[in-house]
UniProtKB/TrEMBL annotation:
GO terms for biological process: isoprenoid biosynthetic process. Coiled coil: none annotated. It comes from the Bacteria. Its cofactor is Mg(2+). The lineage of its organism: Bacteria, Fusobacteriati, Fusobacteriota, Fusobacteriia, Fusobacteriales. Belongs to the FPP/GGPP synthase family. The keyword NAD does not apply. Gene3D superfamilies: Farnesyl Diphosphate Synthase. It holds the Pfam family polyprenyl_synt. GO terms for molecular function: metal ion binding; prenyltransferase activity. Keywords: Magnesium, Metal-binding, Transferase. This is Heptaprenyl diphosphate synthase. It comes from Fusobacterium animalis.
Length: 326
């Protein structure tokens, strides 16, 4: 039932995504760029989160149109952030497809991301969705702070766990929280439920980023849909690296690679050697342990929601999927 309901509502959200991103120059080259932007939309995870949180309220059936509009605004915010991420990371691919900056260049990609943000806020203003505009504006502010802070930490050999989690909470988890709040609020959830959902999705966002950081070392580019080891090569040392470095023996072999990485591009042999060291010295194992720790907290939060429904079962499934070791 919940799968069917999500599928039905997602189709409506896709309609609003195209409506919000509508433009008067469809037949031009600019139109082609923006069509490619919308084709990058993936599993719509954040939209599903917003809907699941909304379904826990009492007023979602009577508020379908507005909730779908808000979900589309959240999804487009995420899409705009991905375009900018690919520019910063100099990534030629996104989700197995050529990225916008890979196909059209960085300048066009910057403006495409900016265009989407402008359309989101314009649409929100025209539709009188002022609270959502305010929330998403603040969310984008935090996302930018997270990205700036992360950039300022590049090549730091002693970056702490605390700083790592501060950065990923701002650049990743905060949009999860915005989605949950908007969905739960619009469907009439109580403040108690909203607060528990915000904590749940914050942890889910952290788990999501941790899993992405793990896969950067354990998957190949084809499986991941983007280049692997890119964060490390850009001097962004993620949780698996931080945890591996806690082993004194790991420091002896990892620090020389990290220092060389700052000065010149690593060879494929060195990258594979790095990957083996991260696994050998427990970086991946520790990252999965952190995911399981956050998952345990979230399972308790699900119980505290006081509901036994298809929705809570679906939320449990999300946790299970993130816990699976690959």
């Amino acid at each position: 039932m919940i799968e069917i309901l999500l599928k039905e509502w997602i189709e409506q959200i896709k309609y609003y995504i195209h409506l919000i991103a509508d433009y008067s120059i469809k037949e031009s080259q600019v139109g082609a760029v923006l069509d490619d932007v919308l084709n990058l939309s993936g599993k719509m995870f954040r939209s599903k989160l917003l809907l699941l949180c909304a379904f826990l309220g009492s007023n979602w059936k009577n508020n379908k149109e507005k909730i779908c509009k808000l979900s589309a605004m959240v999804e487009l915010t995420h899409l705009a952030s991905l375009i900018h991420d690919d520019i910063v990371d100099d990534s030629p691919y996104r989700r197995g497809k050529v990225s916008i900056q890979g196909k059209y260049g960085k300048d066009a990609a910057v403006f495409a991301g900016d265009f989407l943000m402008a359309r989101i806020f314009y649409y929100g203003a025209v539709e009188n969705l002022n609270e959502a505009v305010s929330i998403l504006s603040k969310t984008v502010e935090y996302m930018c702070i997270g990205e700036i802070e992360q950039d300022l930490c590049r090549y730091q050999e002693d970056i702490s766990e605390k700083k790592y989690f501060e950065n990923i909470e701002r650049k990743t988890a905060v949009l999860f929280q915005a989605a949950s709040y908007i969905g739960a609020k619009e469907s009439g959830c109580s403040e108690r439920i909203i607060q528990k959902l915000e904590l749940f999705v914050k942890n889910l966002g952290l788990m999501f980023q941790l899993k992405d950081d793990i896969l950067d070392f354990t998957s190949n580019s084809k499986e991941l849909g983007k280049k692997t080891h890119k964060d490390f090569q850009n001097g962004i040392y993620t949780f698996p690296v931080i945890m591996a470095l806690k082993n004194p023996k790991a420091k002896e072999v990892l620090l020389p690679i990290m220092r060389k990485n700052k000065e010149e591009k690593l060879s494929l042999t060195e990258i594979l050697q790095l990957q083996n060291y991260i696994i050998q010295f427990g970086g991946i194992e520790a990252s999965y342990e952190k995911i399981k720790y956050l998952s345990t907290i979230n399972r308790q939060l699900i119980k505290e929601l006081g509901q036994n429904s298809e929705i809570t079962v679906y939320l449990e499934k999300m946790l299970n999927d993130l816990e699976v070791e690959k």
